[in-house]
Amino acid sequence: MNRVYIKTYGCQMNERDSEQVASSLRDRGYSIVDTEHDADVVLLNTCSVRDQAEQKAIGKAGYLKKRKVENPNFVLGVMGCMAQNHGSSLVDRLPDLDLVVGTQKFHRVPDHLDNLIQSMNGQGPRPSSIVDLAEEAGSQNTIRDHIGKAGQVSAFVSIMQGCNMNCAFCIVPKTRGRERARPIEEIVDEVTGLAESGVKEITLLGQIVTSYGRRDFPVVGGKSPFVQLLERIQDVKGIERIRFTSPHPRGFKQDLVEAYRDLSKLCEYVHLPLQAGCNKTLRAMNRPYTKERYREIVDSLRAVVPSMYFSTDIIVGFPGETEADFAESAAFFDEIAYDMAYIFKYSIRTGTPAETMPDQIPQEEKERRNQVLLDMLHKSSLARNESLVGTTEQVLVEGPAKKGDKLVGKTRGYRNAIFDGSERLKGQLVDLKINRATASTVYGDLVLAGVDA
Ligand code: SAH
Ligand code: F3S
Q1: What is the best residue among 12, 103, 167, 210 to mutate for testing ligand 2's pocket, by most ligand atoms within 8 Å of CB?
Q2: pLDDT value for 302
Q3: Domains of the chain by range and CATH?
Q4: Which residues form the MTTase N-terminal domain (predicted)?
């Protein structure tokens, strides 16, 4: 009765929330298993950003409920964004759900499961579903006790919850609530603990990290709370690399640009969501910047670190995006020459302002625009990776590659790197002479100075 499988959909924040739920369940005596087949309890941690992600989870829940026929005590739960988005109407649609837990209630999962299982073991009728979706002040502070797993090289650390922006297409403010920051000291303690357990790379997570603590903590010496946090993490012994996702162009000020110059551990890779490269579309999306301002940020980052890598999120087929608007957006996208990009076809989200906007774009047209950007991305990422051939890149070794007997790691620019070497190198920083590249991966040979390969 106590084997739990957690399936995670969506973003890295969801991954991190699932880890947290898993660790709190382990503390309560549950065991976390790797496949749904071995589990007595399946929890789906869901995503609502696009319809497709919700449909996947609904399909999965529909499939899993059959397990109840053979095992009446099988427990099925839905957590996270889709739970928050649809609330108790989810139980109307999926009456077999035992547990529906919102984004501010992850820490309550062990109690709810205990209660469900206890009443199932009793003689009485099967308990009704537990639905827990309320807001909870301070829920961001329930994220803690994050201990690196043995051999873990890289870890996500959640620094805040929620988002106060109102992008016209986005459901996240509804599912994740208002911005709430964790205190700097708690985050630094968590990172220190991770470093002590062997973690070398930290990725700070938040929906809008550039807003981190801006109402809770003062600006000091011209530096925002987020930059102050980066400086503190730079000082944590054992941490070799710092990354974060995602900043917002509006909050990307000079102090953050200069952090790339001043903080040696901050990797020269910026994920800076663009959403559209056309001012008319940006306005319609309620994104408070212009493409010219975005370009300024890119230029100022390239001025301090010429080799800076750029990644983005961009949406094609936003309502009212004409052929000319898209052409403008695509030209801007091409001009930045992104190293990585997540290209999304606009998906209608019920309750958002864009839902009722006129001139929705047909699906085939979204597909076409998507492909145009994918082709551009392929070219720019291939060109960038090819430019690395013949150079030496620092790689953090993650471990054995999926295929063959090679090792895999990441460069500071977040390129996948594949090479020959001993598994003992896992967790180490090595130098790699690059000899071949594709759009997604670079290949090379270890530079064997002081390295026991
Ligand atoms: N601020 C968050 C954004 C979360 S949503 C972050 O930067 O991590 C992640 C991405 O999904 C957004 O940047 C946007 O490009 C995309 N997205 C959000 N709503 C969408 C929608 N309705 N249709 C298509 N893509 C969407
Ligand atoms: Fe969504 Fe815009 Fe916030 S994309 S998460 S509302 S910055």
Answers
A1: 167
A2: 98
A3: 3-132 (3.40.50.12160), 139-386 (3.80.30.20), 392-447 (2.40.50.140)
A4: 2-118
Helix, strand, coil in percent for the chain, rounding step 5: 40, 20, 40
Q: Measuring from atom 7 of ligand 2, which residue has the nearest CA? A: 165
Give the orientation angle of helix 109-121 with respect to helix 12-27, to 10 degrees.
Answer: 50
Do 227 and 255 contact (CB within 8 A), yes or no? yes
pTM score above 0.90: yes
Sheet order of strands, 154-158 included: 154-158, 201-205, 241-245
CB of 272 closer than 6 angstroms to any ligand 2 atom: no
Ligand in closest contact with the CA of 179: 2
Q: What's residue 443's pLDDT? A: 98
Per-residue model confidence (pLDDT) at position 284: 98
Cβ proximity of 147 and 197 under 8 Å: yes
The CA distance from 161 to 141, in Å, is 10
Give the CB-side neighbour count of residue 59, counting CA atoms within 13 A: 7
**Ligand 1 lined by 346 (C-beta under 6 Å):** yes
Reported as a single tens digit per residue, the pLDDT across 328-373 is 999 999 999 999 999 999 999 999 999 999 999 999 999 999 999 9
* Residue ranges of the chain with per-residue pLDDT less than 70: 123-126, 144-147, 449-453
**Cβ atoms of residues 419 and 445 within 8 Å:** yes
Least Cα distance to 54 among 422, 349, 391, 356 occurs for 349
Check pocket membership of 85 for ligand 1, CB cut-off 6 A: no
- Nearest atom, ligand 1, residue 245 CA: 8
Residue 229 identity: L
Whether the CB of 74 sits within 6 Å of ligand 1: no
285 lines ligand 1 (CB under 6 A): no
